[in-house]
């Protein structure tokens, strides 16, 4: 992949809901930090997306818990919130953790909610009627073949995960009754490289479960010297393999972004995991090279440069 000169932004599947607005910020000379936050907020507010923000799918108790993080390449400053309830824009709270609580990097649960309340963030009901219906239907059809919206087939690992989760649901009455994540990486005119990730995590997850999206080096990593990388998919595999940091280290060792992503996914794929499901990743370098890889055929990532008239879709290399 040849280098792109000037501002560039890339993101996972479904990031196209926010990437054009984020590129407007970069075109106007704004910061990568503002662009990533703006882009992910729009994705979090997209009610048609059930894997992030408002209308995200709930945990085993039927409650939506969100994870998000943001990382700045020049300083390796990092802010994150995890298992946060009732706040629709966790990416903005993650940014505030980074900027206003530099002695910390990650706040979870009640503590994250108290911080958001203190800063005056608005609360909202995140479980929309449509997401609630999807959740209830999913409980009825636990053996369904496809995970709607992720454009993929459930693996046997997904099935085992959902069966194990259903056991949790049964144990955790009362309850009411697919997964996904969005990440965006931006390079601005000043050369700053910022990576952000936001998710409602795995549906049916154990309450309090936190995936890779809120953990530096797992689902999110940015280092201005080499590159930034982010993951979507089975977060436990990205956590166990340190996937995002591995990708950046692979770039540091001289690999292209695509090769670096592929090598990291192969490393994760070698781990034993009864709940195996797909992992995807993408990376962007400070000189504008980009690439992605995926555990399945047909995956893409979204890209815009200053000259793009709209989101462009690039293939990820399948494993
Ligand atoms: N990759 C998102 C999650 O596992 O929660």
Question: How would you describe this protein?
Answer:
With 319 residues, this protein is an alpha+beta fold. The protein is 32% helix and 23% strand. Strand 2 (66-72) and strand 3 form a beta hairpin. Helix 1 (19-27) runs antiparallel to helix 2 (32-44) and helix 2 (32-44) packs antiparallel against helix 3. The chain is globular, with a radius of gyration of 18 Å. 58% of the residues are buried. Residues 181, 199, 201-202, 211-213, 219, 232-233, 235 line the site of glycine. GO terms for molecular function: hydrolase activity, acting on carbon-nitrogen (but not peptide) bonds, in linear amides. One of its GO terms (cellular component) is cytoplasm. InterPro entries: Ntn_hydrolases_N, Peptidase_T2. It holds the Pfam family Asparaginase_2.
Number of helices: 9
- Assign the structural class, choosing from mainly alpha, mainly beta, alpha/beta, alpha+beta, or little secondary structure: alpha+beta
What is the CATH C level class, in words? Alpha Beta
Give the biggest beta sheet. Answer: 8 strands, mixed
Q: If you average the pLDDT, what whole number results? A: 89
Order of helices and strands: EHHEEHEHHEEHEEEEHHHEEEEE
The value of Rg in angstroms is 18 Å
């Amino acid at each position: 992949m040849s280098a792109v000169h000037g501002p560039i932004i890339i993101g996972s599947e479904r990031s196209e809901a926010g990437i054009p607005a984020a590129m407007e910020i970069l075109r106007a000379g704004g910061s990568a930090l503002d662009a990533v936050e703006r882009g992910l907020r729009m994705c979090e507010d997209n009610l048609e997306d059930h894997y992030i923000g408002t209308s995200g799918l709930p945990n085993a108790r039927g409650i939506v818990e969100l994870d998000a993080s943001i990382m700045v390449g020049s300083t390796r400053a990092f802010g994150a919130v995890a298992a946060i309830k009732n706040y629709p824009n966790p990416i903005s709270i993650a940014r505030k953790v980074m900027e206003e609580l530099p002695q910390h990097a990650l706040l979870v649960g009640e503590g994250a909610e108290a911080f958001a309340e203190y800063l005056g963030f608005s609360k909202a009901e995140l479980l929309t009627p449509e997401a609630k219906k999807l959740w209830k239907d999913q409980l009825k059809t636990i053996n369904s073949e496809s995970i709607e919206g992720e454009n993929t087939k459930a693996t046997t690992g997904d099935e085992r995960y959902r069966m194990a989760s259903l056991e949790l649901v049964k144990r955790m009455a009362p309850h009411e009754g697919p997964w996904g994540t969005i990440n965006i990486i931006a390079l601005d005119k000043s050369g700053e490289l910022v990576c952000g990730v936001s998710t409602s995590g795995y549906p049916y997850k154990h309450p309090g479960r936190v995936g890779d999206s809120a953990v530096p080096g797992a689902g999110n990593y940015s280092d201005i010297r080499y590159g930034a990388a982010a993951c979507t998919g089975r977060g436990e595999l990205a956590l166990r393999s340190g996937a995002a940091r591995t990708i950046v280290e692979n770039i540091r060792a001289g690999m292209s972004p695509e090769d670096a992503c592929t090598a990291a996914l192969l490393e994760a794929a070698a781990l034993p995991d009864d709940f195996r499901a797909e992992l995807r990743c993408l990376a962007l370098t400070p000189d504008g090279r980009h690439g992605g890889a995926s555990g399945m055929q047909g995956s893409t990532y979204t890209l815009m440069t200053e000259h793009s008239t709209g989101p462009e879709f690039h293939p990820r290399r399948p494993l």
